[in-house]
């Protein structure tokens, strides 16, 4: 059972990269005129079509509900819901007055027909590129609405949002890819003072000739997830990780990240640099 705080929220920072699939294609702007292509239009079109969602293995539904742009803040704001049709009704307890002893009354909240329990989270994207196609963002930390599922929903919306550009006097059809990278809020040494290292993840461009069928399939990335069984601390991580990453680079691995289990029962995934 996870209780959400009513008056406080935690946020995770990310760098979000929106990159054209084809070399030479223009990057999609965050916002543009109504008759022009943009990230806002790609996501809002998906919302209007009620296709910006993903059904989870347990039947829960994570859905992008609303996309807005706040011009004064220069920010794109995405509202996600996670609905659970089969969740039990929440209950509330009330402890009796002291003279009544330890008696406690419990009241079950009533769920009306057609209603589902849900939680919500915002993804806020600042419309100021830190480099071409990359923007700083923050995602509310809500159980069940992680960047993993958000990435798939946004990525699919952009994949289906095709646009044309001219290359060598020919019209080429392309789309935008989406990649979020966690921004560390502290050094790895600092994080390990209050947490433990649980996994190391390596990523490299995939090479899989066996999937090629006249261009129907195209390998993207290959991922290796390594479980940390020993104790890696703020004092000894430099004795192990840099050497491992050096060997991994020699083997063709290009991106490295680590999963941290923190003392507040939360998990952090951050790039290892």
Helix count, DSSP H or I runs of 4 or more residues: 4
Q: Which structural class best describes the helix and strand composition? A: mainly beta
Query: Describe the biggest sheet?
Result: 7 strands, antiparallel
Q: Tell me the total number of β-strands.
A: 15
Strand order of the largest sheet: 2-3-4-7-8-1-11
Give the distance, in angstroms, between the N- and C-terminal Cα atoms: 35 Å
Any idea what the shape is?
A: globular
Q: What is the mean predicted local confidence, pLDDT?
A: 84
Write down the secondary-structure element order: EHEEEEEEEHEEEHEEHEE
Helix proportion range = 10-25%
Note the beta-strand portion: 35-45%
Low-confidence blocks of residues? none
Radius of gyration in whole Å, from Cα?
23 Å
- Domain tally: 2
